[in-house]
Amino acid sequence: MGTDVSSFKEAYRTPISSNFPDSVTIRIGTEVFNYGAVNYPLRYGTNPHQPFMAYKPLWNPFLSIGGLEMLKGGKSGLSLTNIQDMSQAWQTLKYFDRPAVTLMKHLNPCGFDLDHDLELLEIQGSRGLAEAYRSARGCDERSAFGAVAGFNRKVDARTAEALMETFIECVIAPDYEPEALEILRKNEGTKKLNNSLRVAKAGNLDRIPKFIGDNTKGFYNLRVLADGTLTIEEPYLTRIKSVADFVTDPMIVREVGGAPQNYTALTQPTSKQLQDGLTAWRLVIQTRSNGIIFVKNDRAIAVGTGEQERVGAVEQAIDKARKKGHSLEGAVMASDAFFPKRDCIDEVAKHKVGGVVWPAGSLGDWETIQAANEHGIALMATLERCFAHH
Questions:
Q1: Domain with 375 in it
Q2: Which among 58, 205, 207, 308 has the fewest CB atoms less than 10 Å away?
Q3: Is residue 318 part of a domain?
Q4: Which CATH number goes with the domain that contains 105?
Q5: pTM of the full predicted structure?
Q6: What CA–CA distance (Å, rounded) separates 162 from 336?
């Protein structure tokens, strides 16, 4: 006779109370920042037995995550992981002016695509968004199960139908067509697929800091360590605003036999590789280190994340791409940190990858350049690292 644990599934659906106050004040030097509890229902923290509270910044009138409007699933509330993945989706989408969709899972992208038919989109509505979503989901169908889907455009009925094809935990977008909301709500209160789907409306995507020089007052990363030690960090901002900010002819000067020798990247990236490289860099910024992203035609086709070794992250992403039927030929890889050795370049060359975006900064950069020249791979240096230790 076993112990019946079937009732534990209710823990994932049941909100728990917390004793946290309704307001919080943080003082950093002479600066005072006031926060108030969010207006939408909360469920639990990272796990069902962890009480938590979310606070919106009262000093910021341009709320997005703190000012979510729950259009479906509000009664059961949001968990901390729901809010974090929604925030991470917004952090990803903030870089893109073109219609874009991203899928987030455990704070990492598991799918991304841009709508390529922008002219048709502007004339006839979001006709391309549904296919962009399906394409993003196709990056990694298994990881997309229970993911958070984010859009930087109004969700239309065709896209809502696509969302209802598989299990999605949450959707976040700036708006929804009435017909789309009807579709997203149709299984509510039943035992059918996506009956507990949470649909959130958020704004002010353009107000989130993203580039070096943007105002970051109050946008600090606060973390508490094991013994209560508090760390405060400025948010990550990138210097890469456009493809023009890549260094496409990186050179390393190395002393060989007592004389300086230059190692210069010889293969210039094509315009397509530059664009895919920019997309890949913007995605790898949101990926847990060690992070690797492969992008092809503005679509993420593989994500390697959380590995302790750089080449391991590369191998992981390659393995995922192959298992899911994606060809890496002509793709561009982005790495969130430098390559200690040339092994990463040699590995991607086996799969005919066309370009690599990487920060540079390793003692072995000359090997990286040498390997890229041997394989005819274009290098794009960012001169900044984007480690994400979530």
A1: 243-381
A2: 308
A3: yes
A4: 3.40.140.20
A5: 0.94
A6: 32
